[in-house]
Structure formats: C-alpha cells, structure tokens
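Quick one: structure for this chain?
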Amino acid sequence: MTTLKECLLACLVLQFSALAQAAPPAGSKPARPKHVSETTVVPDAERYSRRCQSQAVHRIARPQGTMLWGTKRSWDTEKIADERSSVLVSVDLASPRRAEAHVKALRLEGARLVALPSAGDVVGTVLQGTASDGKPVEVAICGAEPSPEDPSMVWYRIEAWNTVAQEWENPCVALNRVPDPRALAVSGVWDASGARQDVPGKLTFACENGAITKCIHWGYKPWASHAGQSLADLHQACTRMARADYCGNGRSHTHEDTTIDMYDRLGMIERAAEISADWDPAKGSFEAAWAPDGATCLAHTRDGRALESILQECPNRFSTGRMTDLGQEDRCVAQRTDVSPDKALLRNRSYGRGAK
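Got it. Here's what it folds into:
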C-alpha cells in the first residue's frame, strides 16, 4: 500500500510540473492562432480599446529584399506575396474613425501631422487606410517622436488592424538593425509600379526599413528644396535607385543592405573618393543613372544577374550596341530609347559580380 501511494504521489507531482511548464508566464499574451475564422470578428468598441497596447515585436522570417513602403506584404504569414503588395499603401486624413472629441481631421505640414481644429492631439487617432489590393485597413497613431536631427520631421509609431489575427499590429517590417520600426508621414501615394501620385487628402506612412524613408534619411526630402529646386523628383528617382528598379515597374534587383555609392546632379551627395568600412571606390564601378521613372541607362546589374534579363523584363525600353560616356568614368552599355541618359538626376556605383 505504501508503495502504491508513493507511485500515485509521484504521478501527481509529474502532472503538476508538466502543467506549470506548459502554462504561459504571468502577464504574457496568449499565443495567437495563425488564422482566425472570418466569423470571429472583434466588436468595434473592443477593437479600438485594444489599440496602442504594448506588444512583442513581430518578425518576418522570409527575406523581403529591398522594400518600397517597408511594410509587410500580407497579414497571412503562410502566403508568399508579390513584392509589389503591401498591407498598407495610403491613409485618408479626413473623417478619422476615432479621435479626440473635437478633432475632425488631420493635415500634413511638411512631415508633421496636425490635428484640425488646432490644439488637438493626433496620438490615439484611428485613420482609414488602404492596402495594395484596395481593401480598407484601419491605422492607429500610437506615438509621435520629433526627429532630433530635423525638427520638421516626426516619427510615428503606428499599428494597423490585422483582420487575419484580429489584433493591432505594427505593419512595418522589422530588421535586425531596426527591430521596432517607426514611420514617416509622407505626402503622396505610391502604387504597385513604384510611381508616386499626389492624391488630395491622402498620404503614405513610410516605414523606416523601406526605400521611401531611406531616401529621406539620405537627404532627399520630397517636401523640401535645394538651390531653389524641389527635391520631389530627386526623391522619387532615389526610390528607384535604392531598389534597383531599372524598368520602373516596381521590381527590385538587389538584396537588403547592399552597399552602393550614390551622387546627384545638384551636388547634395558627391561621389565617394576615399575608402571606408563599407565602401572601396577602387572595387566599385558605374551601375546606372536614374530618373523618377527608373534607370535612364545602365552598365551592369546590382545583384549580378545578366543584363539581358533586364532587357527582357522591359522590352523596347533600352537599346544596346553603343557606349555612352557620362563623364567621371561613368559609361552606359544600355540606354533608354525615350530619355537621354544625361537627363538623369542621380547616379550610382556598386560592386559588380565578384567584386567584394
């Protein structure tokens, strides 16, 4: 009998131990299912009350390449989505879904959102957004952090309502160097081809790891000017260059964190002449010249693929058979048929195949 009691006691101890190990830590969120039935919809009141709560950082394991918006391609983590798709491409500033009682709309001034009427707070506002497939998505502004480098810029912490998981989530893709990305409010809307259009009352929340924000960080602020010239077209050309979008169709031909050297016709950024930890001028060579709608000419691809593959991707866009010298040892082997290479706003150099 004693032996039987000891065995029962040992079994109970093992069961309680297993249950304790399986239970989530106190205060932690329960693991969410990968998919939620479409019939399980969180009511409006509960949905809005859950916005802007502290969350664990969501990471994407699949390589994303160089992104335009810096956002996730799809809420469905089991789906392989096209690089030209996004869970969020624009937001509407009029008629917020939720805001302070007296806030009726928001207005963009440079890169700063202002509540209308004035004196309101934009934090906590829920705006109506749109995904690349045209579906609506709600976007909550959870924080506003003025840029210490430029007081005209404000970094926003945003969340979007994930209809698959039925919860608020940062739509920006997290990378190791920026694990909790913020977003800039940028005038205009970029479509799947990477083209920007002015749409009254709408803007783009451009995430930190995307090309739109990278180009602003490099100095090409589309709301600003340099030497009396607007930087909007230079910024747009930069988004093409950052992603190696030669054809101007929204397709990238590079890898994340690929090192390049860039320089523009306004002299804002000059060609690197000295060796640094990230760049060796002696190993780099001219890659392409850039206009707002893509490359005007190119010499080699950034990711090492054959130049012929680009010519096939956008047939009749480039011609070959002659060399065009742009100066500074920048020579094109493929030129646009409709735009002169010397009309480019931006040029870049990169390491060719095998030159590392």
